[in-house]
Design goal:
- The chain has a 7-stranded mixed beta sheet with strand order 2-8-7-6-5-3-4, with helices on both faces. A 3-stranded antiparallel beta sheet has the order 9-12-11, with helices on one face. The chain has a two-stranded parallel sheet with strand order 1-10.
- β3 (93-97), α4 (102-109) and β4 (115-119) form a beta-alpha-beta unit.
- It has helices at residues 26-41, 50-64, 77-87, 102-109, 150-160, 206-209, 249-265, 267-287, 310-315, 337-348, and strands at 14-15, 71-74, 93-97, 115-119, 132-138, 163-167, 184-188, 200-204, 300-304, 318-319, 321-323, 326-330.
- α8 (267-287) packs parallel to α10 (337-348).
- By secondary structure, the protein is α/β, with parallel strands linked by helices.
Length: 349
């Protein structure tokens, strides 16, 4: 089998649905199981280890090319974006792509005193203007796999003094991401980072940290955690850890192992593997008379008009999803050419 995961993954079917949820490697399952047993028997010394949380933080930081001190951990992208949205001045324009994932746009929309503006993804850079305070965009679109023109967006934002928020949820783990190029990045851990649900990451530049208020700060946000358990936290962490959410230890014990595996394999190697599989799938779809959404270089393949074939694929043991009217497949390190060919055989009928 031409996969990269070796014996770490044991899919029970042809699993092409990482854009919805990634598979957990064996080592992550074992780590979660071990902590759950400790929690059930009282064999441990509490709910989990902050060392595992910090190891996951450090692994993610290395994967996206920044110091660990600029990474906050949490449980969901929506909460991270909500924290950012709370810091935007009333009346500010927030520029976003049409059809952007709801967790990226809704925290700004519900404020009621901001000016959200939505434009086609391909026009995003050209629509940045002097009154734009923030540009928020996913590196890879969830609905159809299109990759944003990020260099153009960054250049336009810089030219107009706007801050940038990048959602790397559909990118981190297979596409090289330079978190240092954005004021903020967010990423859910349970997709291409193959980590348990309940893991997410926020990166913040030193400059942006100055205006971001840690509105959900608790004891884990203190510089000295164990001296911050009662009363107002007297000294928040000097790093981005002050934006941490209360820790889901079971999830982060697994994430420590999952992210270490990604580091061992290497994102560039994963990218070459998954894009080759996606290209093979696109070519096969065209040979069957189906035209996928144009998303060159993306591991996410979306096909308009094939949503009604989802039940057929499921019955045949091929797991994909339907999003924004598209049949959507996504390839990761545990997939092989056999998976691609199996999906095409089922679609051919």
């Amino acid at each position: 089998m031409d996969t990269l995961g070796g014996t770490e993954f044991t899919p029970a079917a042809t699993y092409l649905n990482t854009s919805s949820c990634g598979l957990l490697p064996r080592r992550a399952v074992e780590a979660v199981r071990a902590l759950a047993v400790d929690n059930g028997t009282g064999a441990g010394h509490g709910g989990g280890s902050f060392d595992s949380v910090d190891a996951a933080r450090a692994s993610f930081a290395r994967l996206v090319g920044i110091p660990a001190g600029r990474v906050a951990v949490g449980g969901s992208v929506a909460v991270h974006v909500g924290l950012i949205a709370a810091s935007v001045r009333p009346g500010s324009e927030v520029l976003m792509a049409e059809g952007e994932f709801s967790s990226v746009v809704t925290p700004f929309a519900v404020r009621g005193d901001l000016k959200p503006r939505y434009v086609p993804l391909e026009s995003l850079a050209g629509e940045v203007r002097p009154e734009t305070a923030l540009v928020a965009v996913s590196a890879v679109q969830s609905g159809d796999g299109r990759i944003a023109d990020l260099p153009a967006v960054r250049a336009a934002a810089e030219a107009h003094g706007a801050r940038t928020l990048l959602d790397a949820t559909q990118a981190a783990g297979w596409l090289p991401v330079d978190a240092g190029a954005y004021d903020y990045t967010v990423a859910g851990g349970y997709k291409f980072l193959v980590s348990p649900r309940g893991t997410s990451f926020l990166t913040v530049t030193e400059e942006a940290q100055e205006s971001l208020v840690p509105i959900h700060a608790g004891w884990v946000s203190g510089e000295d955690i164990w001296a911050s358990t009662y009363g107002p936290v007297e000294q928040l962490a000097h790093s981005a850890r002050r934006f941490d959410e209360p820790t889901a230890f079971l999830s982060y014990h697994g994430a420590e192992q999952s992210l270490a595996l990604l580091e061992e394999i290497g994102v560039e190697r994963i990218q070459a593997h998954v894009t080759a599989l996606a290209d093979r799938f696109r070519a096969g779809l065209r040979s069957l008379g189906h035209e996928p959404v144009a998303a060159p270089g993306s591991t996410v393949v979306a096909v308009p008009g094939l949503g009604d074939l989802h039940p057929r694929l499921q019955t045949a043991g091929v797991t994909v999803s339907v999003r924004a009217g598209n049949l959507r497949a996504a390839f990761h390190l545990y997939n092989s050419t056999a998976d691609v060919d199996r999906a095409l055989d089922v679609l051919a009928g």
